[in-house]
Amino acid sequence: MLALTGLACPLCGALRATHDLAHLDVAGAFAANPWWVVVASGLVAAWAVWTLRAWRSALGRPAGRRAGPWPVRVPPRVVAVAVGASAAVFGVARNVPALENVLGPGG
Length: 107
Fold this sequence. Notes:
The protein is mainly α. The chain contains 6 helices and no strands. The longest helix has 26 residues, at about 35-60. It is elongated, with a radius of gyration of 18 Å. About 15% of the residues are buried.
């Protein structure tokens, strides 16, 4: 979208941010896309909680029973609305000329 319209979408720079996070460069990731750093951190935390619950559930089952699949819990609707709203606000804010140097892709 950036190359086509000149506008930075909320996910512009997310791949660079993910790469930087994988290499433990939090400052570089935050410069590439601060919103994605927050969202990715939440996703990793949610995955860790799910994994821990699934592991504990598997350990507590009798030996003859199958260990999976575990029930999938759908997050409340408010989580999806909050993520969508924050993406919209971030998408607008990063295209405001005064904030473009701070929130734009590549910081």
